[in-house]
Amino acid sequence: MAPILTPTFTFRTLVQGALMVLFGLTLILYVLWQARFLIAGPQITLAEEPPRVSNERFITLRGEARNITTITLNGRQIFTDPYGHFNEALVLENGYTIATIAATDRYGRTTSLERSFMYTPASIVTAIAN
Question: In this structure, what DSSP letter does residue 108 have?
Fold first, then answer.
């Protein structure tokens, strides 16, 4: 007759198993936390919004770009500092101007930010006010 086998779970084996499961879950959470930037994709934020209607020919677009490899303003490549900040001048054409900031990450994912501006020369503004 064959002997009846009973499980030999001791306190030590239960604690070891629980610690291995805890270590595995911690490792998975750490990997997901570190991958959050890769998962999120490229991000562009403007530090301050320039006025939409301006009587000055030049405006400055300031902001921050994260998780990018390239960034462009109206198709022209611009550069960031080591912290991801950019500071770029934009010349407004007479009338209506659209500024498009586009960024691409290393996996080819893109995002863009579009703002419209209107240039009204100061002479027109003072003539209308009088």
Answer: S
Q: Is 77 within 8 Å of 104 (Cβ atoms)? A: no
Q: Do residues 59 and 72 both lie within one domain?
A: yes
* pTM across the whole model: 0.71
Residue 87, domain member (yes or no) = yes
Q: Name the nearest CA neighbour of 112 among 41, 38, 36.
A: 41
CB-based contact 23:17 (threshold 8 Å): no
Residue 4 has pLDDT above 80, yes or no: no
Q: Answer for the pair 34, 11: CB distance below 8 angstroms, yes or no.
A: no
Tokens for 26? 């911690």
In a domain, 4, yes or no: no
Quick one: 28 and 53 in the same domain? no
